[in-house]
Amino acid sequence: MARTSKTRSQYRCSECHHTTPKWVGRCPDCGTWGTVNEVALAAVGGTATRRAIAPASPAVPISSIDPGTTRHFPTGIGEFDRVLGGGVVPGSVTLLAGDPGVGKSTLLLEVAHRWAQMGRRALYLSGEESAGQIRLRAGRTGCTHDEVYLAAESDVQTALGHIDAVRPSLVIVDSVQTMSTTEADGVTGGVTQVRAITTALTMAAKTTGVAMLLVGHVTKDGAIAGPRSLEHLVDVVLHFEGDRASALRMVRGVKNRFGAADEVGCFLLHDNGIECVADASGLFLDQRPKPVPGTSVTVTLDGKRPMIGEVQALIGSPANGSPRRAVSGIDSSRAAMITAVLEKRARLPVGANDIYLSTVGGMRLTDSSSDLAVALAIASAFTDLAMPTSTIAIGEVGLAGDLRRVTGMDRRLAEAARLGFTTAVVPAGLTSAPAGLRTFQADDIASALRVLRQISQNDAN
């Protein structure tokens, strides 16, 4: 008698794939709520059958596929297109996440307006605001166009009906955590609901060829709210960053199936809308006609984008005998290390003084390429020697006092030359430099300080 295969039920977590014999509300392994689902498995010892299904379309050689079938369509916002790799791709799904109030809705409303100005239709679906509230913002920012359609909808099935009725080429969903569906369990914004809604919207984008822009919420830790699989389902993941105390906003690429994943776009958020900043270097420089002691300029790479940043240092006498360290925009541990290297390797007695370090314009210098600029700014403030405003410093400082080269040096120097800088202090080993940019190479921090004195004296003469 033939032995038949029986099935049994098992429960598996969709986040960590932990299996349990019975259903639980919270995964005992990763602790996530609402991710344990029932799966059917063949019983041990059963006979598994494998049945082939004829494909709807045959597999073809990769060289026979026309690369022009999937191309970018510009949105009209240069910095946004830069991060996307040239624009949005039909049928793609892009997730834009950011803190509350950072300007996500303002940016995407501007995207819809520019899209409509090019003769294309856009649909803005909002589960957070009414159509009147969106219209009020559109009037304030000048984003009123007849080809931009608005709908306040939180049900994903009804939202798909709006897409079929309007037939747009661009759809903005604000936000995916406020949408709900009756075809999945869980509360609105929960793991199960967010996964089901994202899957439905992704399938609609792939089948209709409509480009989708989804707004995502973030947790207090800055991570995207919802399941981790949310970032796997979409094609592009962008983070919208910005400080409430500053008008500067940055769109940072995290994942991009159609371009580079480390591009950065800069914007300025105003009351009347948002504008692109094609050259953000001027935001991080203190424009002054004469050099001032305690300042130094460097070139940092944010993703692939070179940016000019200024470091300012101030040396003071300790009030109570214990020196104070105050750092803003620079890693405090690296600042303390550079101070120790200056005192030990360069014989510069700065450790007994109060040291204040800051960047201009709220810029954050987190990579090691700004070490030399920090060191020269401290030395300039201590010796009262001003670096010329046309000089930059790029390099990493080691604990032995040696200077190390950093990645992307050619790109950094080219950006400095483009902005009019004429002198660069860099680690030894540089073989070429852009035209019009004179380089001073130093092996260690002591040599860099001698270069600082030489440049300052030449500028004074």
Element layout with pairings:
Elements: E1 7-13, E2 19-20, E3 36-42, H1 78-84, E4 93-98, H2 104-117, E5 122-126, H3 131-141, E6 148-152, H4 156-166, E7 170-174, H5 191-208, E8 211-216, H6 229-233, E9 236-242, E10 248-256, E11 264-270, E12 273-276, E13 295-302, E14 305-316, E15 325-328, H7 332-345, E16 354-359, H8 371-383, E17 391-393, E18 396-397, E19 403-404, H9 409-418, E20 423-427, E21 438-442, H10 445-460
Parallel strand pairs: 4-8, 4-9, 5-6, 5-7, 7-8, 15-16, 17-20, 20-21
Antiparallel strand pairs: 1-2, 1-3, 9-10, 10-11, 11-12, 13-14, 14-16, 18-19
Rounded mean pLDDT score: 88
Count of spatially separate domains: 3
Strand order of the largest sheet: 6-5-7-8-4-9-10-11-12
Rg computed from alpha carbons, rounded to a whole number of angstroms: 28 Å
Q: Which CATH C-level class of the largest domain is it?
A: Alpha Beta
> What percent of residues are in strands?
25-35%
CATH H level, superfamily name of the largest domain: P-loop containing nucleotide triphosphate hydrolases
**How many extended strands?**
21
Flag low-confidence runs.
Answer: 42-48
Largest sheet: 9 strands, mixed
Function: Plays a role in repairing double-strand DNA breaks, probably involving stabilizing or processing branched DNA or blocked replication forks.
InterPro entries: AAA+_ATPase, DNA_repair_RadA, P-loop_NTPase, RecA_ATP-bd, Ribosomal_Su5_D2-typ_SF, Ribsml_uS5_D2-typ_fold_subgr, Rubredoxin_2
GO molecular function: ATP binding; ATP-dependent DNA damage sensor activity; damaged DNA binding; hydrolase activity; zinc ion binding
Family: Belongs to the RecA family. RadA subfamily.
